[in-house]
Amino acid sequence: MIRSIQAAAPPAPANTLIARSSGSRAITAIARNAFREAVRDRVLYNLVLFVLLLIGGAIFLGELSAGQEAKIIVDLSLSAMLLFGVFIAIFVGVGLVYKEIERRTLYAILSKPVSRGQFLLGKYLGLCATLFVNVMIMGLGASLALLYIHRGWDPLVINIWPAILLIYFELAIITGVALLFSSFSSPALSALLTFFVFIIGHFSSDLKALANSSSSASARFVLRALYYLLPNLTNYSAIAAASHGTVPDAASLLLAIAYAIVYSAVLLAAASLIFGRRISNEAQLTIDFDPDRRVGRDRSVGARYGRAPGSRSESI
C-alpha cells in the first residue's frame, strides 16, 4: 500500500493543481487497497453467499404460499441485504484504522504527502465500494428470483431498485459512523456503539415523540439532542413499500441521498479531527517511552541550543 501511495503522490508538487491531483491519486490508492483488504478477508464472499441462499429459501417459501411469492422474496431479500450489509459496514469498518495502527503501517503512510483526512476518506470510499458490490450482487439475486417465480417479467424487478439504492446509502451512513467511533475507541466498543446508532436511528420519530411528551426538562434536552445528532434512518426504510410495488417519489429519494452525503461528510470531518489528535498523542507517547527515539530527540535539541552530545544536560 505504501508503494502505491508513493507512486500516486509526488513528493514535491509544483503548484496547487498538481497537489490536488496527487491528493486524489493518493485517495484512490488507499481506497483501492481498502477494497482489496475487504475482499481478501473473505467476509464479502461468505455473507453474499449466505444472502443468496436466503433468497433461494425465499423462493421455496414463496411457492408454499398462495399468491405471496413476490412479496416474501422481496421482504426476505431486502431485509437480509440490509442486515448483512450492516454487519460488513460495522465489523470491517471498525478495523480499517485499527489494523493500520496495530501493524504500524499508518505512520509510514502519513509520512508521505498524505493527510489524515485523505487517509480516512480513502478508507471510507474503499469500504463503500465493497458495500456497493455486495448490494449489487444481492440485488441481482433478488431480481433473478422474481423472474424465476413469475417465469417471465415482473414489474417488481425494477421497482425494488430504488429501495436497494436507499439501503446502500443507509449503509454508507453506518460506515461513516463506524469510522468515526474507530478513530478514538477500540474495535469492540466501536462495533457496539455503531450497532446502537443503527438501532436508535430507526426510531428517530419515537425519540421526538418521547421528547415532546416528557415532563422532565433534562430528559427533553437529552432526547432532542439524540434526535438531531443521530442519523434519521427512517428515511431509508422502504422495504415494506417495495414488497407491495410502491416506488418512492424522486424528490424524497434525492433528499435521502443528499442527506446521506452531507451526514457522511460531517462524520468524516469529525473523524479526521479526532484521529489527528489521537495520532499526535500516540506519536508523543512513542517518543517519550522509546529510549532510542528520545536520545535522538535530545541530541537534536542539544545541537539546536549548542550543547555537546555528552553534556550533563543532555543525559538528564
The low-confidence parts are 6-19, 293-316
Shape, principal axes of CA atoms: globular
- Structural class by sheet pairing and helices: mainly alpha
Q: Treating each run of at least 4 consecutive H or I residues as one helix, how many helices?
A: 16
Rg, nearest Å: 25 Å
Order of helices and strands: HHHHHHHHHHHHHHHH
Number of domains: 1
Major sheet description:
none
What proportion strand?
under 5%
Taking all residues together, what is the mean pLDDT? 77
* Beta strand count: 0
Gap between N and C termini, in Å?
Answer: 40 Å
Helix content class:
over 70%
Structure notes:
- It is built from 16 helices and no strands.
- With 316 residues, it is mainly α.
- The chain has one domain.
- Helix 9 crosses helix 10, helix 11 packs antiparallel against helix 12 and helix 14 packs across helix 15.
- The longest helix is centred in the last third of the chain and has 40 residues.
- The protein is globular.
- The C terminus is likely disordered.
Keywords:
316 residues, 0% strand, disordered C terminus
Quick summary:
The protein is 81% helix and 0% strand. The protein contains 16 helices and no strands.
Task: Describe the SSE topology.
Elements lengths: L1 H7 L7 H25 L2 H22 L4 H25 L1 H8 L3 H5 L5 H35 L5 H4 L1 H22 L4 H15 L2 H10 L3 H13 L9 H5 L6 H40 L1 H15 L6 H4 L1
